[in-house]
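Reopening closed ticket. The problem is back. First fold of the pair:
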Amino acid sequence: MKCAHFRSQMHELSKAFKSIWRFAKWTRIKSQLSKKLSQFSSLKWSNINHMTMMFKKKIEIRRRKFFFSSSQANVSDITKSFISLTVSFNSRITEDEVKQTIRRVKADKALSTSDISNRVLQASFAELISVLTSLFNACIIHKYHSKQFKKTQTIVLCKSKKSDYIDSKMYRLIALFNIMSKVLKSIMIKRLSDIVETHYMLSNAQMRVRCKWFMISTLNLLINQVHIVWNCEIKYVIFMLSLNIVKAFN
């Protein structure tokens, strides 16, 4: 495959006069040079002007930035509530659910710790569908989540279009999860969402992560609440706090 790809590239280069001379220049000057190792840029802590180039100190800065210890919230004043509703459903996962979930995942996402790409899983799911279905059903029956499914890989990425990457705030984290774990999680989320919506277990004010609830639904709820307040006998003043409003309209 590599030989065929190289020959096709050489054939494309030979068609253009400038391209073949650029390739010849690259072979004379840069082809023999060793590849430069990627390095972290110098970093400084957000509140300290001191800059460091030591690798271990850079790791420590990133660890303190992204994996800081958070204090536990005090929930002693929250009263416990119980829902007496009993819901019965078939817990067995079907092959159709697995098939639809695998088809929905994006094909070229970054590889996780399992080194199995989504595209490979989609190309071979016809042979693996029965095995995956049995595996997921075994996890539910035995109430066990595999240790391999729990493994994740966290990667630090530069935020795009930033002028200076010395500050630790100019970086963000992405977590790469096991593809099998993501498929099982998607199936369970879909099931729980259907149960919650079917039995009206959520408030009408709950907008996020709900199927077929769009920005129009949010605005309609807001307008209705405003009109309810306006029609009260006592005149109230209406205040609205908008968080992440820019993201909502992007």
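Second fold of the pair, where the issue appears:
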Amino acid sequence: MPNTRGISVGIASAIALVLLVVAALALSAYRETISPWTSTPTETTTTSITTGPTSTSTAPTASTETRLPAPDLQLTDVQGNVFRLTDFGARVIILTVLRIEDEPSRLQLEELKSTGKTVDPQEVKIVLLDYHPDDSAEELKSYLTQQNVTWTAVWDTSPNVSQAYPAPGTPTTFVVDKQFRLASRFVGLVTSSELEATVSRLLRE
């Protein structure tokens, strides 16, 4: 005769395990919704390093309550100047991770040039960051000269740099608010109009 009590205990244990898994998944989903990148959606395009634009997704501008402090780094630009990101004061910072001779990065430079013409440099600072080991500071400097770009640019392969501003692909653009908090991250090509709208919102805060 089957042990009905044993079967009941086994079923109860299985149900308890399923409920535990469901609760864990729910907690994970809740944490994701309050992450700085998932608070308020704005459009961005996901771009592959080697193949260019691949898909369209949403990347948010975080609400002021959920923004995390931006990592502050001491860096040396391609001109040999040592600085910290906090040296730029109460300005909005557009920090783009890119690569030399990378077509999506070149397209991003063009969008940044358009943005640079519409913003006040006393209110907005554009910084370029390259940490790819196949590039170099001299190559980056030469490349940007060819592109008629004079913004602050850094080549630095230190792990703390790539960990502070991780890029799943190039270009990846971070926008830091006036209180030096991470407000947005765009993975892939972001248009000048999207950047200008993001910056305009942050400047009004």
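Update: turned out to be a display glitch only; the data is intact. The mean pLDDT is 80. DSSP finds five helices and nine strands in the chain. Please close again.
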